[in-house]
Amino acid sequence: MTKRALLLLLPAFALAACGEEPAAEPAPVETATAEPAESLAAPDENVFASVYAAACPDAEPVNTSVCKRLGIGSADVLCEYGLGDDEYLRNKATLTPGDGEWTIADPETVCAAGA
Questions:
Q1: Considering the domain boundaries, does residue 64 fall inside one?
Q2: pLDDT level of residue 13 (50, 70, 90 thresholds)
Q3: Any signal peptide, and if so, which residues (predicted)?
Q4: Is 113 exposed, middle or buried (CB count within 10 Å of its CB: 0-12, 13-18, 19+)?
Q5: pTM given for the model
Q6: In angstroms, what CA-CA distances link 19 with 14, 31, 112?
Q7: Which of 49, 67, 109, 114 could form a disulfide with 79 if both were Cys (CB 3.0 to 4.6 A apart)?
Q8: Does residue 53 form part of some domain?
Q9: Angle at CA 100, nearest 5°, toward 98 and 104?
Q10: CA dihedral sign, ordered 11, 12, 14, 19
Q11: Looking at the domain assignment, is residue 35 inside a domain?
Q12: Burial class (CB in 10 A: 0-12, 13-18, 19+), 56
């Protein structure tokens, strides 16, 4: 055999050697699955108005409100709202889930601001 023939056969031998070993099987990985947690629906204007009215019966009624989560993974919701004839969101209250319904986190402070 000549050198030229050997040089031509060398890549063929290299390619043949590549597929010889079987690939190692990946080890089974246990993945943790979280139990689905029941969560309350996001509060809208009507929900916030009823929660506020229940917590602060002597305060003016809620005219308008906007609620949003405090952060990713947070269960609490921050609501900005206006009372009586006020159409601006001048007040703030934090709602927290409790016993299957929304409750105001600090009702004394929130009710005192609305009175």
A1: yes
A2: low
A3: 1-16
A4: middle
A5: 0.64
A6: 10, 32, 77
A7: 67
A8: yes
A9: 40
A10: positive
A11: no
A12: buried
- Beta carbons of 102 and 93 less than 8 angstroms apart: no
Q: What confidence tens digit (pLDDT) does each residue in 26-83 have? A: 777 777 665 545 567 888 999 999 999 999 999 999 999 999 998 888 889 999 999 9
Distance of CA 104 to the CA centre of its chain: 20
| pLDDT on residue 20 | 60
| 86: exposed, middle or buried (Cβ count in 10 Å: 0-12, 13-18, 19+) | middle
Measure the CA–CA gap between 72 and 15, rounded to whole angstroms: 51
Torsion of CA 108, 113, 91, 59, to 10 degrees: 90
Query: What pLDDT is attached to residue 51?
Result: 94
- Sequence letter at residue 111: C
Q: How confident is the model at residue 15 (pLDDT cuts 50, 70, 90)?
A: low
In a domain, 98, yes or no: yes
From the CA atom positions of the chain, what is the Rg in Å?
Answer: 33
